[in-house]
Automatic annotation (TrEMBL):
This is Quaternary ammonium compound-resistance protein SugE. It comes from Prauserella shujinwangii. It is a multi-pass membrane protein. The chain crosses the membrane at residues 33-50, 59-78, 84-103. One of its GO terms (molecular function) is transmembrane transporter activity. Belongs to the drug/metabolite transporter (DMT) superfamily. Small multidrug resistance (SMR) (TC 2.A.7.1) family.
Length: 104
């Protein structure tokens, strides 16, 4: 159960990062509220998961999911380039996160 909560919290990290960008420095109310809510839920989920998952592993998995999700959001929705180098680096992050799960 804690791993599921950790993964959901990682996806919520992507939501708050995208909302932070969309808030334009907190000048837009709806994205600002989405940012605050998803940030709080993401942190609560991370804290819950870290009750049984080692902090180094849990934090790295949470950040990895958020980083890859945010980068993919940037490519899909924000017009950022999808170069071979970028995709390769994202695959390496995913491999590292999967490795942490397998070897924990």
């Amino acid at each position: 159960m804690n791993w599921i909560v950790l993964v959901i919290s990682g996806f919520l990290e992507t939501v708050w990062a995208a909302s932070l960008s969309a808030s334009r420095g907190f000048s837009r109310p709806v994205p600002s509220v989405v940012f605050a809510g998803s940030l709080a839920l993401s942190m609560i989920g991370l804290a819950y998961a870290l009750r049984t998952i080692p902090v180094g592993t849990g934090y790295a998995v949470w950040v990895g999911i958020g980083a890859v999700g945010t980068a993919l959001y940037g490519i899909a929705a924000a017009g950022e380039p999808a170069t071979v180098a970028r995709i390769t680096c994202l695959v390496l992050i995913v491999a590292g996160v999967a490795g942490l799960k397998v070897f924990s």
